[in-house]
Specification:
By secondary structure, the chain is mainly alpha-helical. It has helices spanning 11-22, 25-41, 48-56, 70-80, 84-106. The chain has one domain.
Length: 107
């Protein structure tokens, strides 16, 4: 039986996490930073305390693919505790941001 991960409960978020997992690490880092920026600007969240607390608990020896990048680890740890509605809204904004980035790079 496959164990359910925290992001498997939200199909929009699951799609985004899967997309992030498939891209190269430098792009993962950019997306992670973009997630935090979206949360701070679009959702008006003050994340300084959460980022600092999460970063202090960072252990680069974790086994999950997203633990190997502190920015990705931090962004995932922060959004893990958000409501499903906020996670869905964030996932949609991240999809839009990723699409716009791809389009701008192809021009």
């Amino acid at each position: 039986m496959k164990q359910s991960r925290w992001y498997d409960k939200n199909s929009d978020l699951q799609d985004i996490v899967e997309l992030i997992r498939r891209v190269d690490r430098p792009i993962q880092k950019n997306i992670a930073q973009d997630i935090l920026q979206i949360l701070m600007t679009d959702f008006n969240l003050n994340l300084d305390d959460k980022i600092n607390a999460t970063s202090k608990n960072y252990n680069c020896k974790c086994n999950r693919w997203h633990d190997q990048n502190i920015d990705l680890f931090t962004s995932f740890e922060i959004i893990k505790g958000f409501s499903p509605e906020l996670q869905t809204s964030l996932a949609q904004k991240v999809k839009t941001s990723m699409l716009l980035t791809c389009l701008s790079e192809s021009m």
